[in-house]
Amino acid sequence: MHSFGYRANALLTFAVTILAFICAIASFSDKFSNQTPSAQIQILNINWFQKQPHGNDEVSLTLNVTADLQSLFTWNTKQVFAFVAAEYETSKNALNQVSLWDAIIPEKEHAKFWIQISNKYRFIDQGHNLRGKDFNLTLHWHVMPKTGKMFADKIVMSGYQLPNAYR
Amino acid sequence: MGFIGETVDSIKAIKIRQLLTQAITLGMIITSALIIWKALICVTGSESPVVVVLSESMEPGFQRGDILFLRMTKEPIRAGEIVVFSVDGRKIPIVHRAIKVHERGDTKEVDVLTKGDNNKIDDIVLYAEGQLWLHRHHIMGRAVGFLPYVGWVTIIMTEKPIIKYILIGALGLLVITSKD
After folding, report:
1. What part of B 133-162 touches A (C-beta under 8 Å)?
2. Which residue intervals define the domain Peptidase S24/S26A/S26B/S26C in the entry (chain B) (predicted)?
């Protein structure tokens, strides 16, 4: 009962249990953080808007993204993954979400930013429904913790519209 | 020399009833572990409620050796979710993020395109020949929680199976030679 093996086993089990408990508490503490992120997206330019040979519409945009995600960072945050998606509806599809740009924010200092970019990922429709289409631009974020539960949310900005004709 | 002598003595001193009791205890431990695993599958709704991250395609968020907790609900798949999917013909599930989602209005079926955060290109090259989208039945779960480093045990045991045998052998020896 008092051999080295038993003592090592008891110590190890206890250590692992305590570690698991601490990880759970660290994750739980994230619930109490007060989060007030803000963002604004402006479309600076529609670079081009064409119908591909396959018949799908494609558009290229330049966006101006301003955001302050600093309040999302807690002591248990490893990084925040932020992305901008265009969301719209067509006659065939109830919902289309196309990610246009994303970034990994590793630290709180980098979480307040202003960036001007053209879309990193191609904005292609399933079909040719984009002329004159109203769409929302949403800034999503995904908080990845050092341990525990991940959580995600978004800000929806509506009122954007694509041109009525190809260019 | 004394330790080996003691071990040999204790193996010789085993009685049948004691041996059977120990075998049943061992069986109970293994069965409880299995019960917990199956219960986890039921509760989380996913075929593999816990996966180990094997590649660096989601760095720096998920490193090799981290474990992810998965959950699969009836809720629709949305962009930004980290999904675990397996492609027909590949055994190992892949953990990447959904970047494009197209959901049909009538049938609620969904086309999903995924990409690893740390990859330059999206996952079309990983899908089966001619497949452009993932569908719901490819997706085994969504990642909801995460623990760092714990998965290294599994990686080491898979990549160097000799360690697995040594560990099981040592455990077996410990059980047999224990005095109670």
Report:
1. 143-148
2. 37-144
